[in-house]
Amino acid sequence: MEFAFTEEQEELRAVVRAFLAQRSRSEQVRAGFAPATWAQLIEQMELTAVALPEAVGGAGASFVEAGVALEETGRALLPAPYLPTVVGATALASAPLLQERVVGGAVVALALDAREPARPVAVARAGAGDAPAAPTHLLDGTVPHVLDGALAQLLVVSATVDGEPALFAVEADAAGVTIAAQPTLDGTRGQATVTLDGAPALRLSAPGEGAAALERLAGVLWVALAIEAVGSADRCLAMTVDYLRERVQFGRVLGTFQALRHRCADLAAELEGARATAHYAAWAVDGAPAELAVVAPLANAVCTRMLLHVAGETIQLHGGIGFTWEHDAHLYFKRAKASELLYGTPLELRRLAARRSGILEPAVQAAA
Amino acid sequence: MDLRHRPEDEAFRAEVRAWLHDHLVGDYAALDGAGGPGREHEGIEVRRAWERELGAAGWIGLGWPAEHGGRGATLLQQVIFHEEYAAAGAPGRVNHMGEQLLAPTLLAFGTDAQKARFLPGILSGEELWCQGYSEPDAGSDLAAVRTHARLRDGQWRIDGQKVWTSLAEHADWSFVVTRCEPGSERHKGLAYLLVPMRQPGIEIRPIVQITGTAEFSEVFFQDAVTDGDLCVGAPGEGWKVALGTLAFERGVATLGQQIGFERELRRVIATAHETGAIEEPALRDRLADAWVELRVLRYNALRTLAGDPTAAAGSASVAKLLWGPWHRRLGELAVDVRGVAATVAAGAPYDLSEDQALFLYTRADTIYAGSDEIQRNIIAERMLGLPRG
């Protein structure tokens, strides 16, 4: 495998980081989604196009590039629907017209089961409405916890059809689609409840391949949240270290107290291990897809738990100021808990990864 | 570094595997991976013979340049060798101090004569080395060494004491950090000397550790001698040379070490099936966690080896801080899956099972080669840039 980033990938990281340092500052994060910023992400940096094929106007790169961008949007807590869009785009291979719209800036949201994303949430029946492209089915179901759902133009929906799971695309403004925004604990990322009542849908996965397609989409989603968490944690630790370098108590800079230094070192070690895991997982999306079933839930469990730890310590190590609404620490702490609880908790995903690896089975022992 | 395996790397892997399959037989196979940290006292004579076998086949000094008798293997090939070695359950190496620590130091800082004198003995597996760094008052704080050396009549004469020297009674030579300028302090005035272990001026006393076995010793120097030209680097510059050695202490062997860890974890899981502990949800989760965290160790090692520029300074300390406590938790699991049965020793007076020994020995993993606390200091200072107190 190729573990080190290429020069081009490092350049992408630098460009995105510099842009977000201007356009995703604290007050902008708190103000929420800014269409002008989203437009710049699309037009200037073509960020939603990175992992899409050149034939539809994409950059033809891999999910590693999307991962580089996600690490940066996580660092800046960018209040924009980048994560669901770039993840959802990976499910559109059979619909080049929809891929083209994503390249052009269409927002995608994922109407998946928020506890077990590989389990279908809606039910499909044959029938055709009037959109998109050539609709094939009608969907029924209620899907809570759809990230950035209120901003979506396109929905990628999991549904059961003829007894098997499948993926569908639904136009957010189609008849039979209701999207109700919900207030969230994590104020930096919106959620909506999507209700589908005979909503016209285009089947994305071929018959017999739906379970694998849904499983892969869940894997990419787990990886995306993992790598975003790494970016967020990196920012938290940097913020904390900066503060400890400046804050003086008892006539000393706080960063000289070994008790505090050692806690920061423990956070750094946990972060570095998680970062390596997330980078490996982002590479595996295209580089080793067969490993994704294990490495994706594993990376998500490791990275979201790590972020909660780092963000919690960020509050503690800042003392009273870290507990205020004014300071950014709580934004990261809330993001951390939401990322942990969505799409399977760390405990559930560790169990899932271990089960899939077979490590705990007696048969594996006999073979070893 | 590109970690994708090319055909020549797969051919190299096949070569290593085939050689191990053909040669890891009889007494060598019977050792079942004995040796290494925690088990350095086991099967010494067989392991010495095994080291010579490795040397004769050219498996020692894989990464050294060909002009010094090495094979010039790539980093990836060295990783492959260590992985296959651990996967085969080959014995713990008796001369990793010589091959992994001293030899790179000589290649970087040694004279031509020193290289010509010592590298062949390491390559053949004939001459074993031990490390003379720690002292009773210079453990984590290496710059506090007091053992001193004076050059008289073309010979260094050494007095003082070293401690925590593994394999001291089996080693032919030691690389010793000494103070060569009387009255010098801290990092100044040190000399890095190569000292023969078998001489009247050296006395070795084994240290019985919490496992009841002894793999470390105290080494007393009383007018011990070595030739005047066996100082690596200039006298007074020993700190630089010693730090160079420490930098070699971790590296390509890491991935092999992790394969050894996975063997241990699989053994603990197999035991959990035998005892029924695997059905206990809390223990089952701890076993799953151990596996998850072992994968994290692996990804972290791959990233470090790949030379990822985002892997900042201090990555060796991060790796130590991740694997030391991991191994300690595995030691706790090893006895927990046996439950109350683990409270009885395998034999009198204090003959411990492998699981009991793992439980006890792994307490050392967070102390030696820089304690966890030292690693945290290094990370805080070099990686995070926090000011010193």
UniProtKB/TrEMBL annotation, chain A:
Residues 6-86 form the Acyl-CoA dehydrogenase/oxidase N-terminal domain. Its cofactor is FAD. Gene3D superfamilies: Acyl-CoA dehydrogenase/oxidase, N-terminal domain (1.10.540.10), Butyryl-CoA Dehydrogenase, subunit A, domain 2 (2.40.110.10), Butyryl-CoA Dehydrogenase, subunit A, domain 3 (1.20.140.10). Keywords: FAD, Flavoprotein, Oxidoreductase. InterPro entries: Acyl-CoA_Oxase/DH_mid-dom_sf, AcylCo_DH-like_C, AcylCo_DH/oxidase_C, AcylCoA_DH/ox_N, AcylCoA_DH/ox_N_sf, AcylCoA_DH/oxidase_NM_dom_sf. One of its GO terms (molecular function) is oxidoreductase activity. The keyword Oxidoreductase applies. Residues 223-356 form the Acyl-CoA dehydrogenase/oxidase C-terminal domain. Its EC number is 1.-.-.-. It comes from the Bacteria. Belongs to the acyl-CoA dehydrogenase family. This is Acyl-CoA dehydrogenase family protein. It comes from Conexibacter stalactiti. The lineage of its organism: Bacteria, Bacillati, Actinomycetota, Thermoleophilia, Solirubrobacterales.
From TrEMBL, chain B:
Pfam families: Acyl-CoA_dh_1, Acyl-CoA_dh_M, Acyl-CoA_dh_N. Residues 7-126 form the Acyl-CoA dehydrogenase/oxidase N-terminal domain. Residues 236-384 form the Acyl-CoA dehydrogenase/oxidase C-terminal domain. SUPFAM superfamilies: Acyl-CoA dehydrogenase C-terminal domain-like (SSF47203), Acyl-CoA dehydrogenase NM domain-like (SSF56645). It comes from the Bacteria. Transmembrane segments: none annotated. Keywords: FAD, Flavoprotein, Oxidoreductase. The lineage of its organism: Bacteria, Bacillati, Actinomycetota, Thermoleophilia, Solirubrobacterales. Its cofactor is FAD. It comes from Conexibacter stalactiti. Gene3D superfamilies: Acyl-CoA dehydrogenase/oxidase, N-terminal domain, Butyryl-CoA Dehydrogenase, subunit A, domain 2, Butyryl-CoA Dehydrogenase, subunit A, domain 3. Residues 130-223 form the Acyl-CoA oxidase/dehydrogenase middle domain. Belongs to the acyl-CoA dehydrogenase family. This is Acyl-CoA dehydrogenase family protein. PANTHER family: ACYL-COA DEHYDROGENASE (PTHR43292), ACYL-COA DEHYDROGENASE FADE29 (PTHR43292:SF3).
